[in-house]
């Protein structure tokens, strides 16, 4: 009986079901529903914290934003959106827009 189950499973994993299973991200957590019930959830991407990578993403976004709009026209909201971070994180790494511009300028000369 065990080999029949294995054969059936093997056949099922070759068809459209297999593609669907491979396409879905794995279950990695549980979410609370009202009343305390739990349900499994899928997370498409798990990011690890990497301060240097985040800082460089902000700098790349700032360089692009400053190049497109200048220091007066560039907005921190636009820089944060390009970098994929929120404004609080932007100000965590750079205390103000002038410091960010200076760091972007230094990075441009360094490259």
How is this structure best described in words?
There is one protein chain. This protein has 111 residues and is mainly alpha-helical. The protein has helices at residues 2-12, 16-23, 51-73, 76-83, 87-93, 97-110, and strands spanning 27-32, 38-42. Helix 3 (51-73) packs antiparallel against helix 4 (76-83) and helix 3 crosses helix 6. The longest helix is centred in the middle third of the chain and has 23 residues, at 51-73. The protein is elongated and about 55 Å long. The model has no long low-confidence stretch (mean pLDDT 76).
- Tell me the structural class: mainly alpha
Unreliable stretches: none
What is the N-to-C order of secondary-structure elements (H for helix, E for strand)? Answer: HHEEHHHH
Largest sheet: 2 strands, antiparallel
Give the end-to-end Cα distance, rounded to a whole number of Å: 65 Å
Helix fraction bin: 55-70%
Radius of gyration, CA atoms, in whole angstroms: 23 Å
Strand order of the largest sheet: 1-2
The oligomerization state is single chain
Taken from the alpha-carbon principal axes, the silhouette is elongated
Q: How many H/I helices?
A: 6
Average pLDDT level:
76
Annotation, overall tally of beta strands: 2
Strand content: 5-15%
């Amino acid at each position: 009986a065990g080999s029949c189950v294995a054969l059936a499973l093997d056949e099922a994993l070759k068809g459209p079901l297999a593609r669907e299973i491979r396409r879905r991200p794995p279950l990695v957590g549980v979410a609370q529903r009202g009343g305390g019930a739990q349900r499994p959830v899928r997370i498409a991407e798990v990011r690890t914290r990497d301060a240097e990578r985040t800082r460089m993403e902000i700098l790349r976004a700032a360089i692009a934003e400053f190049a497109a709009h200048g220091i007066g026209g560039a907005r921190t909201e636009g820089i944060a959106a390009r970098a994929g971070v929120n404004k609080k994180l932007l100000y965590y790494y750079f205390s103000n827009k002038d410091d960010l511009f200076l760091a972007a300028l230094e990075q441009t000369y360094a490259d």
